[in-house]
Amino acid sequence: MTDTSIRSGYMMFIFDKYSGMTEPHGVQHAALPLGVEVHPLPLEGADHELQLNVTWLPSIVTLSICPSFMQNENRETDILETGEGPPVSDYSLEVRSVTDTVDCMTPMCYEYNIPGESRWWVVPPQPSPVAESCAVRPGCAYAVRLIAHPWDGHTSANVNVELEECVAGVCSCAHSPRLPIPQVSAHTVSIHGEIFVNVTWSLPPPPFPYRLPPELKKMYYFVSIGKQMVSDAHPSPWFAHAVSRRVDVDSPVAVPDGPRWMLLPTVERSDKRSGERSESRNIVLDVKLLARVNLIDERGCVGPAGNATAYDPLAAKKITMATYALWAIFGGTCVLAMVILFAVSARLVKRVLSEFRSAPAPASASLEPLRHHPTWLPLAVGA
Q1: Which regions span the lipid bilayer (predicted)?
Q2: Is the dihedral angle over the CA atoms 216, 219, 223, 224 positive or is it negative?
Q3: How is 249-288 classified by DSSP, letter by letter?
């Protein structure tokens, strides 16, 4: 028996087996949902984020997929529309951002196990505490995909939605990184035994005014004092806000502002409780204090922070090489001044003494006797 006859007999067996089947056993999948619509709503508890309310109508047909064994050599599937089929067991919903910007590109929002009798769902249902997570923001475009289960693996209801810059009172903050950064300086003082931080700041003009929303206005400055909770050895030292204040302002963002100042208290105390104002050298703190100022515009968007170190305990205790050099120069100057003063004093004393000393006799003058005697008393010669 040859290979050809064996192959022919096998194919005839397969043909006889499937030709005896009265009805193929098809795999039924839920049909497409109808009338899918997307409505943006404010997301409660989130800043500048939205949620999409997706609504749809129930499916009225199902897709019957049966294998075509003999009609197609590649064994592909035939899709037949029928009026009856299994009900939708559940839905899944996907929301993907299609806007390639830093503010819009967020991870996909995915909801699954949505009950089959549901006719609407919101995505995301609540704000996420994780920064890099699913988010829907104004000014971005999204692709919404609704899938009914049982699913055939490729059929879905797709809707594209493009959101405006401001939706339902929630506006986009994609421009916030381009807001001007306040220029901040700060130092600590002690008044009546309490430590205060004197924060001074000014606002320069924005570097890219034409990349900001037109006629954007300032709303307020957020001034805060932070205590360092993680050491500088950490790649990202974290500062916890201890005290914060709000300074209202109403002027265009494009117009510079300041200088402004504010005195903020802290809970720390100094080692000297008196009614006089003391310098920072009398302040006893064990943590670094950071002063921070942010600009918030009329949309409620927070600009980049301007920072300044108000107090550093290590810097207060550390004597730098510049300090040593300064003391060395000061000591050398003092020694040189003393040497010069001593030399000038010696010359001055010598000159004063020379003034009081009697003048020497001239060389031509006759020598006087060593002893004077009266003229009437003759000298006794040979006595």
Answers
A1: 324-349
A2: negative
A3: --SBTTS-EEEEEEEEEEEEE-S--SSS-B-GGG---SS-
Structure token digits, residue 105: 């590109």
pLDDT, averaged across the chain: 78
Taking the mean position of all CA atoms in its chain, how far away is CA 325?
Answer: 38
362 — phi, psi (to 5°)?
A: -70, 155
Class of domain 25-171: mainly beta
Task: Name the CATH topology of 176-317.
Answer: Immunoglobulin-like (2.60.40)
**Cα–Cα distance list, 165 to 30, 173, 246, 283, 299 (Å):** 37, 9, 26, 49, 11
Domain boundaries, the chain: 25-171, 176-317
Q: Is the pTM of this model over 0.90?
A: no
Asked whether this chain's domains 25-171 and 176-317 adopt the same fold, the reply is yes
Q: What pLDDT, in 10s, does the model give residues 173-200?
A: 999 999 999 999 999 888 887 889 999 9
